[in-house]
Specification:
The complex is a heterodimer. By secondary structure, chain A is of the alpha/beta class. Chain A has one domain: 3-Layer(aba) Sandwich (Glutaredoxin). Chain A has 5 helices and 5 strands. Chain A has a 5-stranded mixed beta sheet. By secondary structure, chain B is an alpha/beta fold. In chain B, helix 2 runs antiparallel to helix 3, helix 14 packs parallel to helix 15 and helix 30 runs antiparallel to helix 31. Classes of the chains: A alpha/beta, B alpha/beta.
Chain lengths: 201, 997
Amino acid sequence: MRRERTIWLGVAVWLGAVGIGFAGWHSYEVTPGAGGRPGNPAGPNRGEWELVLFVHPHCPCSRASLAELAEIVPGAPTGVVTEIAFVCPPTVPAMWERGQSWDSATRMAGVRVRVDGGGAAARRAGATTSGCVVLTAPDGRVAFRGGITRARGRAGDNPGRRAILALLHGDETAERELPVFGCPLFAAAGCDGTGGESCRR
Amino acid sequence: MPEVTDWRAQTAARVRELAAAGRNGVYRRADRLFAGLLAFEWVAGLVLAVWITPLTWDGPAARTHPHVWAALVLGLAVISLPLTLALARPGRASTRHAIAAGQMLMSALLIHLTGGRIESHFHVFGSLAVLAFYRDWRVLGTASAVVAADHIVRGLVWPESVYGTATGATWRWVEHTGWVAFEDAFLAYICWHGARDITLAAEREAALEVARTTVERQVADRTRELVRSEDQFRRAVTLAATGMALVGPDGRWLRVNRALCGILGYTEAELLGLTFHDVTHPDDLAAGLGLAAQVLAGDFPGYHTEKRYVRKDGHPVWVLLSVSVVRDEAGDAVHFVVQIQDITDRKRAEAELLAAKEAAEAATRAKSEFLANMSHEIRTPMNGVLGFTELALDTDLTPDQREYMGTVKASAESLLRVIDDVLDFSKIEAGKLDLDAAPFGLRECVGDAMKALCLGAHAKGLELVCHVAPDVPDDLVGDPHRLRQILVNLVGNAIKFTDTGEVVVRVGIDSRAAGEIGLHLTVTDTGIGIPADRLAAVFEAFSQVDSSSTRRFGGTGLGLTISSRLAALMGGRVWAESETGRGSTFHVTARFAPAPAPARSEAWRVDLEGLPVLVVDDNSNNRTVLAEVLTHWRMRPTAADGGAAAVAALRRAAAVGEPFPLVLLDALMPGMDGFAVAEQIQNAPELAGATIMMLSSADRAGDVARCRDLGIAVYLIKPIKQSELLDAILLALGAEALGASTPGPDVPRPPATGRPLRVLLAEDNEVNQVLAVRILEKRGHAVTVVGDGGQAVAALDARRFDLILMDVQMPEMDGLEAAAAIRSRERGTNRRTPIVALTARVMKGDRERCLAAGMDAYLSKPLKSAELVETLARLVPAAAPADGVFDRAAALARVEGDAALLRQLVGHFTAQSGKLLADIRTAAEGRNGKKLERAAHKLKGSAGTFGARPASESAARLEAMGRAGDFAGADGALDGLERDVTDLRRALAELVEGTTG
């Protein structure tokens, strides 16, 4: 009996440990990356909506963001310029941006893919975490900035996708800023553009 | 029943035990399976994490992705407990439940790693299916509970991690859990089946165990029995009183027992080193090897033989071997099984017995030879004594001389009977007495026996009565001589031991069966009787009632013994009933075969049917017997017990007009005897006309003459054979036919003495020579005498003979050789001279030897003239024809050669013919046709009895005249008849004289 009790006690401890593990894992998954800065409060008037997704070429979490962008593009009204910018640090070798995410992006129709060498555009848009989407209104103001997944690497219905589509369809009440779940686009030292700050918090 | 209940309870417990063991085995195997599976899943999760999200990036810098760490650490945490329990405590309930929980947590980990992809949920269903390996639905419950809890918790906290989407997070867990429950239902059913299969397997295993246990117990029991049986067999063989051994096909002793060792004098070890060749006597080895080879070849399965072994000490020992061979399934000989019995003592006893038997046989041969020689040596002088006594009695002697010679003859005959008895007894004792099987007439046989004894009975004044029941068949097959011998013995004894009264012989049927008739003969006397305590002893050899009897009555005491043995040989027995002072009755039973009756004329019955007869006899037995016989012949007898009663009966009959035509009158009666009755009849005219036949028990001198004077038609001496009585009645009544006594084929022909014969006598004994010559010459035959067989052959070469009398035992060439030589010389010729053997040897086989040598007849010495004459007549048919007056052969045939009867018939004819001639003359002169016819008819019948054709024809002519009433020529016919009758009387007188020799 004592041995049995010991076993059941061990089972309880084991279940607790496993639960704690799952809880910790859950905690990691739902913790967003570093939020972007507002960047330019108002840019030049372009006359059309511009939707830019900044991704780290090798961030596994951003594959979910690419998938969500693919869901948004067909739902967006015509005239929206959609672009995927692969942010590459200045020190990386050529073609560093190529990979699974690059391939997925280039197969996406109606989307322009470009390399944001050194992350200048990202910096300008205030994107610091891979998966960050910046929607710029035709008048040059940033209508939305944030992530389009509910957690790291989790595709599926999410508030970012709904907010962007709402904004594009003229709903001004939609969320304007949401957390981004992904890898930092810049090294911790240069997270803010000056280096040294990590995207994660 | 308690045992059955107990057995069932034990089986059920065993089933539970086996089922538990089976389930435990399944649990352990599943535990091991899941230990590996969990480890594999951990590694696979790690690989998946490394593959999908190996790194996480921080700008250009990369580091291990937290998913990889989660897969490594959390996965390890998930499998740690189940793996530990599976390895440390396999088979336990807690282990499989922990494994179930761990497996489901691994599903949660995988789903989490794949970001809640719905496809990853298949891992849940797969895991549940694999968990069904435990065949324990409760494990499925644990797993399903973990799944449900996971879905509920994560659905609430972070639905995307489990469903991939937040949509429906509050109710999706119900759907997922429902699918799991759906699968659980089937898996639980499968688990139930699996558990049942385990139970069924356990039941089968338990049944098998029970069967195995039973079989093992039976095998053990049988094995014990076999061991016990083999032990018994081994001990039986070892301790058997008889020698037993197993011998290989090569002859080597394979196994021997103590008894065999004892027989052969070897130890067991010594014998097992030898072969049976080594101990077999050299003289018997070849035969033994031959038998063994035949058995090995399969000619026969085994054999018994007697042979000799040689003991170790060199002495031979006789053994009886019983050998059989044992073969294997292929039919090859494995070994011999041999039983050896020491029969040395038996062999020794057999040798002694054989020697004793040979000695006994030699003694028996010597005894037989002695008996034969004694017979010869005694009979030879007896031949002379009796023969010459008979010759002397035929001469003129003074009364004293005749009395002396009669005494000599009686003594000699008595001595001869003693010798015959001794020889018969000897032959019976030696088992050398064979019975003939010849057809014979029973009544003739019995009558002959009575005839032989009547003189003795009459001399003592005894009535000798013989009664053969009518239903007893007359024609039988058997040995009449021995039957007659029995009767002569018994009746002779009865006469001997009876002073007054009667001796009655009765013959009746004892039994009838197919092909067999049992006769019951009784001889009753009124003699002294036999004490009850001596009744059995009288049948013992050399025994009489007491020693004084022997002195008083004489005799060897063998008669009854011989009779008893003869009856036994005839399939019957002899016994006696007696009362001292009142007489005895001896009973004899014997079996005979029926013989076909010879054809007989029944014409006489017509003459006798319904004929009234007066039977007059003071002896009731005689009256009864006569009345019965006459009734059997369809006559009407009336009995009278004395002379006065007879006269009264005659008068009564005459008064009513039905006189008795025939009177059978006993001569000797108290008061008025037969002659007085006859005299009254003669003197009373009203009684005249009856034919009187006088029957007398005493042949007294002058009786015949008195009968003639009194006109009595027939005078007969009692006892009277039935055939004799019938013939006499028919003759007296003048019947035409006398067919009743027509002789059968085997009845000897009467002697034909019509012409002298040339007889060659071969006899070395001078006394016998003289005796035979005298007998033959007295009958007119010419005799040539020779002294041995060689001379006989030479004599026959020199001249022809009508007959040869050949003594068997003669010097030089004996009778048998001489007969063979004569027959050899006759071969190729038409001549065959009859040869009659004469021998004093009366031993078994003598007759056969004589006949085999070519002889025709056999006479034993001492020679009896009647036998010799009869034999001559039989072998040499009368050459001379009938003399014209009468047919001699026919006349003799009528009386079957009985000279006494012939004399009686001739005497009767002589007396009757005179009276009939007178009657015929009176009738012819008085022209009384009816009387003439009747008298002539009677005379015709009487003459016809003798085959006298002239007299018969003359009488027939007169009979016809009388019937027709035509008397013309009657005188001439009467003269012719008187001449013929006179010639016939003279010829018959000559015949009678010729047969009285």
